[in-house]
Amino acid sequence: MKRPLIMTPGPTSIHEEVRRSLSEQITNPDLDMHFFDFYKETCSKLQRVLKTDNDVLILNGEGILGLEAACASLIEPGDRVLCIDNGIFGNGFGDFARMYGAEVVYFKSDYRKAVNVLALEKFLDNDNAFTVATLVHCETPSGITNSVEQICQLLNKFGIISVVDSVSGIGGEPIETDKWKMDIVLGGSQKCLSAPPGLTFLSISEKAWKKILNRRLPIAGYYVNLSIWKDWYQNREFPYTQPINDIFGFHTAIERWLSDENPLLRHKVIGEAARKSLIEAGLELFPLEGFSNTVTTINIPENTKFKDVFNSMLEDHNILIAGAFGFLKDKVIRIGHMGENCYEDRLYVALKALDNVFRKNNVKLNVELHKAFISKL
Amino acid sequence: MKRPLIMTPGPTSIHEEVRRSLSEQITNPDLDMHFFDFYKETCSKLQRVLKTDNDVLILNGEGILGLEAACASLIEPGDRVLCIDNGIFGNGFGDFARMYGAEVVYFKSDYRKAVNVLALEKFLDNDNAFTVATLVHCETPSGITNSVEQICQLLNKFGIISVVDSVSGIGGEPIETDKWKMDIVLGGSQKCLSAPPGLTFLSISEKAWKKILNRRLPIAGYYVNLSIWKDWYQNREFPYTQPINDIFGFHTAIERWLSDENPLLRHKVIGEAARKSLIEAGLELFPLEGFSNTVTTINIPENTKFKDVFNSMLEDHNILIAGAFGFLKDKVIRIGHMGENCYEDRLYVALKALDNVFRKNNVKLNVELHKAFISKL
Amino acid sequence: MKRPLIMTPGPTSIHEEVRRSLSEQITNPDLDMHFFDFYKETCSKLQRVLKTDNDVLILNGEGILGLEAACASLIEPGDRVLCIDNGIFGNGFGDFARMYGAEVVYFKSDYRKAVNVLALEKFLDNDNAFTVATLVHCETPSGITNSVEQICQLLNKFGIISVVDSVSGIGGEPIETDKWKMDIVLGGSQKCLSAPPGLTFLSISEKAWKKILNRRLPIAGYYVNLSIWKDWYQNREFPYTQPINDIFGFHTAIERWLSDENPLLRHKVIGEAARKSLIEAGLELFPLEGFSNTVTTINIPENTKFKDVFNSMLEDHNILIAGAFGFLKDKVIRIGHMGENCYEDRLYVALKALDNVFRKNNVKLNVELHKAFISKL
Amino acid sequence: MKRPLIMTPGPTSIHEEVRRSLSEQITNPDLDMHFFDFYKETCSKLQRVLKTDNDVLILNGEGILGLEAACASLIEPGDRVLCIDNGIFGNGFGDFARMYGAEVVYFKSDYRKAVNVLALEKFLDNDNAFTVATLVHCETPSGITNSVEQICQLLNKFGIISVVDSVSGIGGEPIETDKWKMDIVLGGSQKCLSAPPGLTFLSISEKAWKKILNRRLPIAGYYVNLSIWKDWYQNREFPYTQPINDIFGFHTAIERWLSDENPLLRHKVIGEAARKSLIEAGLELFPLEGFSNTVTTINIPENTKFKDVFNSMLEDHNILIAGAFGFLKDKVIRIGHMGENCYEDRLYVALKALDNVFRKNNVKLNVELHKAFISKL
Asked: Across the interface, do C6 and D14 touch by the CB < 8 Å criterion?
């Protein structure tokens, strides 16, 4: 397999240091006491990323497993769950809640904007009898970041447990789990932390643990059951054999993030420069506001086909970009600027290629994308 | 972390080639068409290991996920499920079936012997109204291998779908999925195939697919739902982002197994020599018959404590061995001879250390373990 | 050791693929017949780089070893040797010739220009009683490339054996060993081929071999004696144990070069853009003509100190650039754009940093270096 | 290239940790001040291996370069040099001395025994007008270790500078450079220290430096000239660009040796057990006394051909063993037990294969080699 430059909204390029860690010799993670400490230390580092004292767990599965585990463990049949929905991922969250028996109520907000917090507040003033609310920090398909700061504090005011999918937010967008009263925050290894895909992690507040551990009915599943993790460290026993090489790699990836000078500022600067250059060139962003700093979504220019742009980027420039799915299928192009890909030389290369591909596809551009980009930095 | 020699029944040592594959640069597994073919090719290689034309899937999770996914996808509330039980793992299988609504009936067989097939046949002649039966190929905690050859053909005769946990069997014990009419066979990456822990895989017969796809009720979960994989290749769409580095490593590990001259014979020869040397020294195996060729379980000699043997092996010789759990906790020592650890020099080193540790713990041995071992090869 | 971006005129960054090859398990290079073929194949690939059918040897030592070996093996006490000298390296070549007994005659040419071929021709018309002539393809300290095409053909016309140091030329500047009648061409692993430092190689024409093998006096040394290599392949015997890991890495590096679309054009485009941007900014190149495409040398701007620029590049930007030595010490800055470092994103990053450092050191620049650079591509 | 197990007297297997160090990203070793300290620290570690406070240098070349550099730098035309000769390497040392102008006098000693120190003493009582003496610590072709302890102290008594080739001794045989008054001790990276081939190193006493720096005539060569290294650290200037990746690997290899519990005892125990088992089987060692602990040389049994044993070991068992050259060509088999290959499991595997190959070649053996071997441990 020839390896392209993957400027997609995750997985991202993985730094060689991280890949070297992946390839270290292993011990038996069930029997070697050192590994329990290593795993715990990895969780502690994630606490620093998430700014939280809450428990953090790393599960052996893709991001969707974290999301499902949160729903499965928290929600009991009959629970009223508020699904805050301003995009494909936000909406889909409701399906997982319903799968575990929730009565789901949707708060809908414009799909091209960040969640309207004032409207949400008004909505909650009217109806707040929810045990749990689900929301998405960064709507990866549309490139919109929601104000989890305001929303989670609002939910907290009403005593509602917040479950936040921040898979493509963590590491690229500010997050203050404890200060913002976020109950469950979920992430994946392969986005802004730039580890390989395969791990998901979540922080769990005391309030969330209380609900999980005081259910009337058992949790419907083992692999999605968070309660089996409750005392793993005290007991030195994992619910299943841990993917030790993946943990090695993830540990190094988190260390890289933590030792980086200011990764959040970097994402902000690069994200803004990318957007401004695209706009200046005359292209249209899909979001009208609430722009994500980790992924930029632009509408496919008229008379252009996504497939042509995608293929030309790959074949002529060896760069992978993404489209989207659902109602956005074939309508948008997405460029990831996450983690290891969020550097100016990477974007320079990607935007120069995109400039070239657009022109070949007869898209009129007011400026050269890559030059506009570097002039905004 | 100092890395010991891990002579445990999985995870095993991982060959450097496999670890190098883990550390290769990645592409985006959701968007790069080459990866779909690579994943498929990996599954094809597993078909060769399992001797089957059935579909094979690799899931992003530990072995227990494969087991749960099989139960969750196959079993509907009310299904009568036969749990063939001659050990801790066999018995626990019933819990998973019950979790997904099964009415579980246990066929119990002596925990120190392979499943009594004649007794099972008699049992089934009497009562065979089961949709599904669960069984374990190799009971890892006790070191017993069951005759899946006879049992699965028997179950098939009665139209019962067999679900076989062969996590510690595949790659070390003979398996003929199609010939022996095994409906679902599950494995893990970290046992006799000597890849890192983190992946589980299963082969699924037409009969099993039919039941999965013609349920009355939906499957209670997403991550454990096998039906969402049905047309992944035709649609070039995975249910979630695949753990591409793990798949790289697993691919290489399977290739190594396939290009090995006769790995099954190697496991047989090493397993037999290990058992014979331990017996000749005067030690007692836990199993009375049905000895596994991938893990050997011996009873802790009188006046000896597991913890002392374990610690001394680790501290004085830097070798990790295993005990067991459940009713075997502190009663047995387990030595894995799986995959990359199933070579005479590895066993020589481990048995020499064990000989030394036993003597220091005042265990009388009739022969020197390592010398007895090499004389049996 | 923290690793900086090394934008120096060699060693260059080494691609991960090359470093992975370095780390492969080895065989015994003296006894394993496969290695003789591997080494030979590596030489054949170098023949393709050098465009020659002449023998190519790889020696276990730095570039200077190749140069010394050529002098030691070719030159006999009393030989009249012409030293073509338009720079520090060209001049130093004469010292090596003299060390091995030559009566050295210098042809001096302006140190800020390529060798004046017309003047050389006139010189030779007058006096051409030389057995050997030494010259440098690319004067690394000053950043000047000489026309080996014209010079070697001229020398050949007079029957003079040419010995060309192309250490920093090969792989970055055009070279046509056979067509241009170059007798001995020497290179090093760590320049435009971007392998680790530690190997030198040379191509040897029939005419050169004849002189080496028909000396009156023995060669004064073993490690520098090329004649001991004469039939290494036929005899399957190396003069000493070969540095097999280095050869593994070098092999991969050469393969990368050969499979690159047009590395010479890449060096030309990047080299030109770098020079033009520096000039447009108001800086002064050291060379007046004969600009190298692999290294650019600029005069230190007035009121600026090399050490300040060097330190600031390293400390504030983690980029290593070079100064020079001899009469150029503290007078110039050198930026390498060789091999793996000869890509626009690398130069973009380096020139942006340099722009910043110059401004901090009160150097007035007419344009922004990095922006000027990308506008020239 | 398929990689065999290389049980040859160097190069040896290289530990994965060492190979990983080889593959690290580099800095510019000429310009990065950290590298000067790293190189120096590597030399300091070698001082600990050699038990010396003398300067240690690492040169970019094979072992033979160290030997030649010592001769070239020390010896002036007309110097009387004593060549202590009890083997092929000892004898050849004289050729290097002569190449640099020495009048060489040979002290011959039985080629199947260690140097006769009493005879040497008597010889020196008679004639001791030598500036320099050359000797070999471990005669790799014959597997004989000389008493450098006695010889160097004896030479010192007569004021003669000793130059000791300990390429296959260092790391496997005791060495006390300062206590035993060894003036120059030379080694190679690829023997008992188990780094890749490509580096040589030497320790240089004050007495040796004095001679080198106070010559009447210049040293005839640059690459072999030790005097150019005199103040490399103070000046932060290497005579040529250092092979940084090789130094990385060597550093790790030396660290492994230093952190090993008792590598010299390990070589002694393994060496003795190997010899005893071969003798017990009825085979004949080439040496009559002075057995090396790093390589064992046995005479080819009657009616057997070296080529057959060599080929069968390689083809049937994937193990490389060595023969020898010169007068030993086709007469002996050599098995290395050096560095990473000096472990009982390695010898067990090699001797089991050799047992099998000998029997297939109709060599009568009194015992099974591998079983005899482990019974001697």
From this structure: no
